[in-house]
Amino acid sequence: MIARWQLLDLGFSKRAIEHRLSTGRLHPLWPGVYAVGRREVTRKGMWMAAVLTCGEGALISHETAAALWGIRQERSRVIHVTVPARRTPKGRGIVVHRRDLEANDKRRKWRILVTSPTATLVDLAAGAERRAIERDVNEAAQGDLVDPERPRRALDKMPRRRGIRELREVLDPHTFRLTRSELERLFLAIVRRARLPIPLTRQIVNGFEVDFFWRELGLVVEADSLRYHPTAMKQTNDLLRDNAHTVADLTRLRFTHWQVRYDTQYVIETLTAIIQRLTPSSAPR
To answer: In whole angstroms, how large is the CA radius of gyration of the chain?
Structure first.
């Protein structure tokens, strides 16, 4: 990708640029922005071209930045670009957001200017549901783009803008938990709805990683995804894990994907009953 102003800076004359356009060595994508050598352009190439089209201070943002970072898959061919507030560029298929960003909010990946992972999460959080925000944060964490503490600290330094409040609420250290799947996030939503204590996640207990762990109650809960298959090796591993927890005098519960997604009342009633039984009585003896 190359812009007309870049060609002029390199010493090309207007006539030389027009000649390369007429002979197919340059292919216009947006006014003043060209693909070099061939008309076919990769998605990354289109992102870079959109930044060049929007000019000085422009960078990929919002859903497009999420796709670039690997936080979400791109659902639309529209490209989101943020530019300084004073500028009003236009381009077919480009959604322009006008806002002045701090230096810490800017990054470069694959030579493309893009909002930082934390700034991208803020943009995505604006007006979004809690479950969607949790999914984005977890995807960013699994991609080693952020850890929960880094966005919390960064939010305190950001100028006030949409998305900060929603993201800060989700990242509350008393309630936020890293998860590996949508099923685990659904289970945590059930726990919050029932107003039960929030469990730890991704913990190693008796040598095995468990889905959810209430350490003070000695309770382990597993949520079986649709990928769960009772093969002989899987059965053996589950037996070893369950026996290890039994030896350690832990209480175990297991819920299926169907129960977590479609029979939430059963999950709430079962979990509530177990937690009430395991919670030390506060009544005097």
So the answer is: 25
Cβ count within 10 A of residue 117:
26
Span 191-247, pLDDT tens digits: 999 999 999 988 899 988 899 999 999 999 998 876 555 556 666 777 788 888 888
Domain ranges of the chain: 1-41, 47-176, 182-285
pLDDT at 123 over 70: yes
> 37: left (phi > 0), else alpha (psi -120 to 50), else beta?
left
**Cα distances (Å, whole numbers) of residue 58 to 53, 63, 104, 135, 236:** 9, 15, 15, 27, 55
Length of the chain: 285
- Name residue 250's amino acid: L
In terms of CATH, what superfamily is 182-285?
A: VSR Endonuclease (3.40.960.10)
How many Cβ atoms are within 10 Å of 49's Cβ, its own excluded?
24
First to last CA, the chain: 77
DSSP code string of the chain: -EEHHHHHHTT--HHHHHHHHHTTSEEEEETTEEEES-S---HHHHHHHHHHHH-TT-EE-HHHHHHHHTSS----S-EEEEE-TT-----TTEEEEE----GGGEEEETTEEEE-HHHHHHHHHTT--HHHHHHHHHHHHHTTS--THHHHHHHHHSPS-TTHHHHHHHT-TTT----SSHHHHHHHHHHHHTTPPPPEEEEEETTEEEEEEETTTTEEEEEE-TT----HHHHHHHHHHHHHHHHTT-EEEEEEHHHHHH-HHHHHHHHHHHHHHHSPP-S--
Amino acid letter, 107: R
Segment 156-184, tens digit of pLDDT: 888 888 999 999 888 887 777 778 788 88
Spatial distance between the Cα atoms of 186 and 270, rounded to a whole number of angstroms: 16
